[in-house]
Amino acid sequence: MALDYAVIAAYVLGMIGMGWWGMRRATSKSEYLVAGRRLGFSMYSGTMSAVVLGGASTIGGVGLGYKYGISGAWMVFAIGLGILLLSALFARRIVKLKVYTVSQMLDLRYGGNSSMISGLVMAAYTLMLTVTSTIAYSTIFNVLFGLPKSIGVIIGGSIVVLYSVLGGMWSITLTDIVQFIVKTVGILFLLLPISLITAGGFDGIQQRLNDPAMFEVGNIGTGTIITYLLIYVFGLLIGQDIWQRVFTAKSPKVATWGGITSGLYCLVYAVAGALIGLAGKALYPDIANKDEAFATIVENLLPTGVRGLVLAAALAAMMSTSSGALIACATVASNDIWRRKAKNDDTAASDVHNNRMFTLVIGVVAIAIAVALNDVVAALTVAYNILVGGLLVAIIGGLVWKRGTRVGAMVSMALGSLTAIGFMVFVDVYANEAIYYSLGASLVSYVVVSLFTPPTDYAVLANWERRVAGNATEEELVNA
What pTM value is reported for the model? Predict the structure, then answer.
């Protein structure tokens, strides 16, 4: 295992080193939160791919492949579809707005201040997203060192918090590029072919399993597939962690085509994870917990050195999503919640030091929650149910329907969020009804309340159209 340890250690030290280098570039709020809005095609597409494919997509994706076979690809496949739709339909307008948070977009569109409600919902989502990837660290450190879950979570989480606090989005972008390369090599070019070859290819897997359902696209269940499409496709359209990456693009063209490239990569990654899990089921059929399938396959199948690189790839996937969600949660907390509470725009969220403190505090909170939770897919489901049920209608409605009003949006956000939470608490976290009923309640309330309240003021809509056209003034950019 010495060579595996060396590979992991080199990777971790490299992440911290990039965090230190990024600190030298993060000299302003724009540089710290959105990398100065100047990422080109390669860096943008790489960092977008890294942030959406995290621990749940890697550990959870392989686990779903282990349990359901080919059909286990649906969760990550839905994530890829979400990035494709976001990039093709909305990325150009998002870039032109020149804001920092989704809530700021809502304020521009509807007028007034709706940031407290939307900010709380988005903060809950991004915090849980951070937690899901942080939980997954424990599987890697357990394989490497036999450490208990809590210690693995603390070690992995501390590394992410350290480089995120130091350099903000610049550190995260630089580490994401490395993480994207590492997990592409480790997952797609090493673990996938080795696991399939060892299992005897598709013929060998079929003979070992003797279960045709494992090769059926719909094996996971129609209801589950629909739920994945609803929460992940729609969730990727409106998530702060995703929008904040869109804000980093230097041009609308980069945001569009870089995002489409990233979406296609996600589709490939989805199939790869399911196939690795399927091969693992054929080779090791008695794994009790599907989320342990990835670590079991790596530990038993790969030679030393290669095993270290693949584990580094999994660690990379977790860290990229965790760091992206962490900076997103800190941005929402500082710009949409604390800033409104403090009512002091000069000091509440515009200073790099303050943003670093928010990142640090939220990182510590996420580590503490991750120590207490176990199921990465459950945590991710909670995050996306709250996000989609609460915010999807108000955000997309604001982008496509001029008659939508601020009161309609606020009622929609509150009712949708409460409905999603209610079903998860009183029925089941995995209940498909949570997303169905929350979206229904959100949509109906948005339309009805908007039609029965005065239209949005003409001056607000005129300002919105000006910002969507990319005509923000320098003063507006400074005060964003």
Answer: 0.85
Q: State pLDDT tens for residues 377-425.
A: 677 677 778 888 889 999 999 988 999 999 999 999 989 989 998 988 8
φ, ψ for residue 39, nearest 5 deg: -85, 135
Asked if residues 327 and 33 have their Cβ atoms less than 8 Å apart, the reply is yes
Q: What is the pLDDT of residue 444?
A: 96
- The pLDDT tens digits for 251-271 are 999 999 999 999 999 999 999
Q: Give the pLDDT of residue 348.
A: 35
Instruction: Give the mean pLDDT of the chain.
Output: 85
Burial call 90-129: b when 16+ CB within 10 Å, e when fewer = bbbbbbbbbbbbbbbbbbbbbbeebbebbbbbbbbbbbbb
Q: How far apart are CA 247 and CA 100, in angstroms?
A: 7
User: What is the rounded distance in angstroms from the CA atom of residue 63 to the CA atom of residue 378?
Assistant: 13
Rounded CA separation 471/477 (Å): 10
Amino acid (one-letter) located at 474? E
Q: How far is CA 3 from the centre of its chain?
A: 31
Alpha-carbon span 234 to 36, nearest angstrom = 27
Q: From the DSSP assignment, how many helices (H) and strands (E) are in the chain?
A: 25, 0
Please give, one letter per residue, the 3-state secondary structure of 394-459: HHHHHHHCCCCCHHHHHHHHHHHHHHHHHHHHHCCCCCCHHHHHHHHHHHHHHHHHHHCCCCCCHH
Query: Phi then psi for 249, rounded to 5 degrees?
Result: -65, 140
